[in-house]
Design brief:
The chain is α/β, with parallel strands linked by helices and 279 residues long. It contains eleven helices and eight strands.
Length: 279
């Protein structure tokens, strides 16, 4: 694994590469309040046969988190393309989770459809509408963190208290919050400067309805959704499957918003139908 930083319009964007750069490339895009590390199981399964690139979007992970930054979906998509250009990747497969799925579908439908060889949409936002219960809670937290950033530090200190982890992250999973999330990912959703990003990122998601663009996606597309997703409406998965011409749908029963963490074996079984590890 190689971690690198790229300057795009004066902003630092972090990305990591795995595998042989001469192998077919895959670019993997995370969602809101997440980071490139959520693809670790995907990369572990595919990096022997593919050159995998995980990007930390602006406002996330190791990338800059400017207050007042441009977090619009199309702009984030152009930054992903800038990473591809910097690596000399003319064509590539795309993975996108949640908002990352929204970004990947924007690239595949509008910005660079000719460059996308295949698309994997994991719990991806299609309409811009999140489920109301999650949206209300996330929006209130985002407003609070944006205007009172000290609350984020308080939240981090209080997280070990009984029940608070489940309250904070419970809607992201259909079952108990996985130990893997607590161990590997939780701290990375509360990095310094993160208070600047939650509110504008949520607003960016809400303003990108891709319904009219989905029929323009020509790449072979795999759509993976948990039936018990409490963040993105599962109907967004149905919509994408109905409108994207060359698509197949995989439903995971009893799984929430993070299939790659909550049921890694079932998720990988679906992924490797498109991307063969032995390719």
């Amino acid at each position: 694994m190689t971690e690198t930083y790229l300057s795009i319009d004066g902003l630092r964007i972090a990305y990591r590469t795995y595998g042989n750069p001469h192998h077919p490339p895959l670019i993997l895009i995370h969602g809101v309040a997440s980071h490139g590390g959520v693809w670790r199981h995907t990369v572990a399964a595919l990096a022997d046969a593919y050159f995998c690139v995980t990007v930390d979007l602006l406002g996330h992970g190791g990338s800059d988190k400017p207050r007042g930054g441009d977090y619009r979906i199309a702009t984030q998509a152009r930054r992903v393309l800038a990473v591809a250009d910097a690596l000399g990747l003319e064509t590539f497969g795309l993975f996108g989770h949640s908002m990352g799925g929204q970004i990947a579908m924007t690239i595949a439908s509008t910005l660079a459809p000719e460059r996308v060889t295949a698309l994997v949409n994991v719990s991806g936002v299609a309409t811009g509408k999140l489920l109301p219960a999650n949206l209300r809670r996330s929006h209130l937290r985002a407003i609070a963190y944006f205007w009172m950033p000290w609350l984020l530090d308080v939240s981090v200190r209080l997280l070990p208290m009984p029940g608070l982890i489940d309250w904070t992250y419970g809607m992201w999973f259909a079952n108990a919050v996985p130990e893997e999330w607590i161990r590997e990912d939780m701290a990375l959703t509360h990095l310094p400067g993160q208070h600047n990003t939650y509110l504008p990122v949520l607003e960016a998601v809400a303003h990108a309805d891709l319904t009219d663009r989905l029929p323009h996606i020509n790449a072979p597309t795999l759509i993976i959704f948990g039936r018990d997703d409490q963040v993105v409406p599962p109907s967004d998965g149905d919509l994408a499957h109905r409108l994207i011409p060359n698509s197949q749908m995989v439903w995971l029963n009893g799984i929430g918003h993070f299939p790659m963490i909550e049921d890694t074996p079932a998720y990988l079984a679906a992924v490797t139908t498109m991307f063969k590890p032995e390719a």
